[in-house]
Amino acid sequence: MSVFLKRQQVRKRREVKKLMRRLERFMMISVIVLFGLVFFYGLYRVVFFSPYFSIREIVVEGETKRLTTDQVARLTGVEVGDNLFWIDVSAIYQRLKADPWIRIASVRRRPPHTLWMYIEEEEPIAILSSQGLFLMNRKGEPFKKVETVDDKSYPVFTGMMQHEKQRITQAFSILAWFDRSSLFPGEEVAEVNFHPVKGYSFTMTMRPVFVLLGHYDLEKRMEQLDRFRDAIYQQGRRIQYIVMHDQHRIVVKYST
Fold it and tell me: Is the alpha carbon torsion for 233, 235, 237, 242 positive or negative?
């Protein structure tokens, strides 16, 4: 046999070995991929179809004075027995936030069986009368239209619109001063009104006392009322109204 033929045979054997090694690697990779697919398919079946991850408990934490746990659970649209990983947490969050009483919401999966939620409710402070009646929170934001079942024993803001933030802020400052003041013990504010000409005024729930503060320097005028408390009450008669058009003068009208 010639040297040339021997070289050709050697080259062919090398090529066959290379091909076999490539085939072995391909088979090895194929087996690994197949096992991987089987594993992940099995995991998929366990996570999404196995009763092991079915919801058995819906937990609601936080301050919920008006919404019960059952009411919050109904808002989610989730039922006991649903798969924990099939539910759309973002959609549940959006459904919770759509309820006007819910100010803050958080939703979490807690495997294997628990859907956990944290809720903070809105706290109404006043009612705004502006093209309807709306409950307002501490930030001065109308968050819910007043319905028949809602508590209506809050101070009513009149003469101001929802977009008039400065006027609403001034009305809240009157409420804050009233809570600190001892001028009208045992009383609560029934209404805070803004009039374009007269300015800010308020009336109370038990005694029909009207207090006109005017447009400007409300804090100073309210402090002045506190300083002159004894002088205002020295008559010993029932107050009908108090007018403070001038911050240097207090006009008090007593019932006859």
Answer: negative
